[in-house]
Design brief:
There is one protein chain. By secondary structure, this protein is an alpha/beta fold. The protein has 2 domains: about 210 residues, Rossmann fold, CATH 3.40.50.2000; about 160 residues, Glycogen Phosphorylase B (Rossmann fold), CATH 3.40.50.2000. Helices cover about 40% and strands about 15% of the residues. It is built from 13 helices and 13 strands. The protein has a 7-stranded parallel β-sheet, with helices on both faces. The chain has a 6-stranded parallel β-sheet with strand order 10-9-8-11-12-13, sandwiched between helices. Strand 1, helix 1 and strand 2 form a beta-alpha-beta unit. Helix 1 packs across helix 13 and helix 7 packs across helix 11. The radius of gyration is 21 Å and the shape is globular. The N and C termini lie close together (about 10 Å).
């Protein structure tokens, strides 16, 4: 089938979990033979990548369906509140002007974030024929718990536009877990419009070798220095474990001014090389994700594929990945909850921890590989046309 895929950027041209998901979904749908027209963006000051570079980044030398890449520049950030929403709408308007005359070519339109806003609006106003449109807003963080006043104000500005796009769409894609509950119970969206499809990971992430023995429990955190990621609470909890038989690795850009001066806490900075990141996951026993809000974090999938037990807050779709079999699911972000989970991991005997680690890997193989998720997505899109 012919799919028009409207995105808010694809990795590596735009960095982020949403962009990784877009890259992987487009890639695997293309490998299944679907014809895809991809519309994506780069920052206002970045160069637009050549078609061949995009194609090679997605498919390499593997056979795939017909592929077209349309890349646009996203607007420059401003100082007046609401600049992001305005730039999103302008970006969607650029897209609409490019694809308006071509809509009849496609069998389905897959929309990430606000990239289909203008199209949805025009279809609603003018009532013209158009393929079915499915919208994906990943974690709906704007409706989840805020981590501070600034974050709360940002959430409030995003909520109404998100509702507009969801109400105008034919289908709403959800990762499941608390995201689907939020959509139906809090936002009162039609449950018949909601399609649950989890995120996934590629098979080359699978780590089937035994973990190396260590005299310390090794715990890993991966993430930006962003308030909603819970690093402030994690830092406070880590102070209680100074001098204990546990080592913490933190990967991500964390300012020197907030780093702990603690012998058992190691800061790796931003790790851009995927192989280096794989190796870091594989040397650790437990992965921790104490976020206030999430969609379905790639980091948890990567950690599970690397055979780590998981500590995560029960937000977004985390409960789809984490339970008592492979880790500890925290009711909410708090220093106390993090301390309790870390202490439980520290006190776990080698056999029980190994079972959790193995169960993480098994769940990836059973439920969260891109080959399986792409086939599921393909079947759903074909049945929706």
């Amino acid at each position: 089938m012919k799919i028009l895929f409207l995105s808010d950027g694809i990795f590596p041209y735009v960095i982020g979990g949403m962009q990784k998901h877009s890259r992987n979904l487009v890639r695997h749908l293309g490998l299944l033979g679907h014809d895809i027209t991809l519309v994506h963006q780069v920052d206002h000051d970045a160069e637009i990548p050549e078609y061949e570079h995009v194609r090679n980044e997605l498919f390499g030398d593997r056979d795939h369906g017909a592929f077209e890449s349309i890349c646009l520049k996203f607007g420059k950030n401003g100082k007046i509140p609401g600049h992001y929403i305005r730039n999103c709408y302008r970006y969607s308007a650029q897209i609409y002007s490019l694809i308006e005359s071509r809509l009849a070519e496609f069998d389905f339109i897959y929309v990430k974030g606000f990239s289909g806003w203008k199209l949805l609006e025009e279809r609603n106003n003018l009532m013209f024929d158009c393929p079915k449109i499915g919208v994906k807003f990943h974690g709906y963080e704007m409706f989840q718990m805020s981590s501070g006043l600034k974050n709360k104000l940002e959430h409030l500005m995003l909520r109404h536009p998100v509702l507009i796009n969801n109400n105008l769409a034919d289908y709403i894609f959800s990762y499941g877990g608390k995201i689907s509950t939020l959509l139906t119970e809090r936002l009162k969206l039609n449950p018949n419009k909601i399609i649950e499809i989890p995120s996934a990971i590629d098979e080359d992430w699978l780590f089937k070798q035994p973990k190396k023995d260590s005299d310390k429990l090794k715990v890993l955190f991966v993430g930006r220095y962003e308030r909603r990621k819970g690093l402030i609470e994690l830092h406070e909890a880590l102070r209680k474990f100074e001098g204990q038989n546990i080592e913490f690795s933190i990967a991500g850009s964390v300012p020197d001014s907030v780093r702990l001066e603690q012998a058992n806490v190691i800061y790796h900075g931003k790790v851009s090389d995927e192989k280096a990141m794989m190796n870091l996951y594989r040397t650790c026993d437990v992965f921790i994700c104490p976020s206030y809000s999430e969609g379905m974090p790639n980091t948890i999938l990567e950690a599970m594929a690397s055979k780590c037990a998981i500590i995560a807050t029960d937000v977004g779709a985390n409960r789809k990945m984490v339970n008592h079999e492979n880790g500890w699911l925290l009711e909410k972000v708090s220093v106390e909850n993090i301390e309790i989970a870390l202490q439980a991991a520290l006190e776990s005997n080698k056999e029980s921890l190994s079972k959790m680690q193995l169960r993480s890997l098994q769940r990836i193989e059973e439920e969260f590989l891109w080959t399986k998720i792409a086939e599921k997505t393909s079947a759903i899109l074909e049945s929706s046309t």
